Every structure is written in C-alpha cells, then in structure tokens.
C-alpha cells in the first residue's frame, strides 16, 4: 500500500495545526469551504473557494487572536436539485485560523475574484525573514 506523506514546515507556520492528513489526502469538515494558505515572505495569502456567496454574505473578523471567516446566505432547501454529489455548502460556512502575534490584524484586506475570497494578511515587520 502506498502512503503519500505531506511534509509541512512546522516552524513559523501558524496554520500548520489545521492541516490534517486523512488516508493520504486532506479531509475537510462539513460546511467548510476549501482553502489555500500561501506564505509570501512579508504576508500570508489566504484563498477560500466561496462560490455562490456574495461579498455581502461574508463576514471577516478577528477575535481572541483568531481570524474568523463566515459566510451565510438565504437558502431554500426546497429548490435544491437531487444531488448525486455535493462538495461545497449552499447555506453557510465558517473557517477559523490562529493568528498568534505574528500578523498585523489592522492591515488585513479582502477581495473576491471569480467566487474565490482572497485575503492578504500582512506579517508584523519583526516576523519577515529575507532569504538571500
């Protein structure tokens, strides 16, 4: 049996604890949207697949050193098709990420591009490491 092992840099990655292997892949909790987190040196870039949620449906907040991203929209289950497979939520989602003291929460920005919510989370200057 082949077991694919992902190796993630644990040192300095505040999101590492939320990456959980599951049978060689990644398991996403129900009612959450897929998410990518990238490290760009002086900032993190977070991309959430929030298809069918308008900008007005999404709330981003920081509470107790956690970044909370919530989407809620009106939804009538009576209009649902007969799903054979459903992989993204239609009514609501929530993602929570630890921030620690490594980021500048006042500088967080967000925009929506083709159903993807893109957040830029700047690091505090003392957390930026220049590699030469």
UniProtKB/TrEMBL annotation:
Pfam families: HSP20
Coiled coil: none
Domain (SHSP): residue spans on this chain: 26-132
UniProt-listed PROSITE patterns: SHSP
Name of the protein: Hsp20/alpha crystallin family protein
Family according to the record: Belongs to the small heat shock protein (HSP20) family.
């Amino acid at each position: 049996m082949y077991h694919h092992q992902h190796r993630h840099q644990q040192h300095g990655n505040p999101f590492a604890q939320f990456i959980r292997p599951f049978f060689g892949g990644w398991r996403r909790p129900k009612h959450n949207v897929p998410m990518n987190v990238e490290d760009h040196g002086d900032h993190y870039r977070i991309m959430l697949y929030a298809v069918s949620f308008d900008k007005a449906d999404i709330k981003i907040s920081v509470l107790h050193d956690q970044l909370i991203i919530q989407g809620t929209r009106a939804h009538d289950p009576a209009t649902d098709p007969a799903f054979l497979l459903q992989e993204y939520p239609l009514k609501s989602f929530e993602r929570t990420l630890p921030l620690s003291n490594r980021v500048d929460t006042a500088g967080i920005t967000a925009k929506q591009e083709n159903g993807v919510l893109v957040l830029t989370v700047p690091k505090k200057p003392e957390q930026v490491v220049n590699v030469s």
